[in-house]
Please model this.
Amino acid sequence: MTIHEWGRVAEDGTVFVKTPGGERSVGQYPEGTPEEAMGFFAGRYASLETEVGLLEQRVRASRLSPDEAAGRIKAVRAQVAEANAVGDLQGLIGRLDSLGPVLAGQRQVRKAERAQAAAASKTEKEALVVEAEKLATSSDWRNGVNRMRELLDAWKALPRIDKPSDEELWRRFSTARTTYTKARKAHFSELQEKREGARTVKERLAKQAEALAGSTDWGATAGLYRDLMRDWKAAGPAPRDIDDALWARFRGAQDTFFHARDADNAKQDEEFAVNAEVKKALLVEAEALVPVTDLEAAKRTFRGIAERWDAAGKVPRDQIKDLEARMRKVEQAIRGLDDEKWHRSDPEKSARADDMVGKLEAAIGDIESRLAAARSSGDEKGIKSLEENLASRQAFLQMAKNASDEFSA
Model:
């Protein structure tokens, strides 16, 4: 159809557009020809047609949400219906109305997508709740607080789901966060109380350590420092900055004492070096007694060496163990021989051995008499028994005599 089929120009320049409800005036164009007037209002129609075409493309390409598209279609439709233009305005309205089913389909797609997203969001929120509840029963105070914050951020980033489910899951999530936070605060509150208690104890220990720093009672004071260190470790940590300062005081006092003790010991070691040389010379004398050839002479000589050993005095600490071990070895060698001699000459054991010899000799004499009688009477059975008994007693007698000889040696 040509433009003249959609409108006409009256003699006074008024332009009309044809509609299903009849003609409608769209304006006047008195200064131009009818063709120019129709062209002007046809241009307006062309602009509307372009706008409708662009809107169709955007709607069908889903570049607008269904609600945005519906609003835009409504506005353009009203614009077309009242447009001062000449052309197929009803056709443009029909094209706009044909987008209704498209929007309905898009709404269904969006509804399905929202349902799918809500289901995924619900699953993710349930997982967040489970992890938060698990964390609420843990004692991971260092990493747990950061993880709980991450869980909250993840929750906020997820889309809402149906109100009952969302509220129930949030109630559980919030309860888990509150439980964890209260437990964490209680833990650190208790920890702070313990640290304040440790602070009081360590302040006292630092003062005690400082009071002992100038002592010259080396042995007793070293023992006291060991006790203080044991108490320090048992006290536990104080607040970090305070703990470091108290430790510096405590350790400084210890170092002062032990450095002074080490210096004194070093001085004494120098003085005791002469004593060590004396004792080394005495060891040469003592070790010459071994192996022992004359026990009594060795005992007398060793007693003299021992007296001079004691009189020589202390030696440097690093030589004590070796020198004492060598002296003890000589003493043990002499004492061992002395013990062995005593064992051989023990009066009680010698008397018991002699008594056993006498009893066995008497028993053997009796058996020999009985054996002679048995032989005279021809008692073969008695002879055999008595001969076996006699041989056994004679063997025991020899053993008893050997033992007696050892004690009398």
Notes: The chain has five domains: 3-97, 115-192, 193-257, 268-344, 347-408. The longest strand covers residues 22-28.
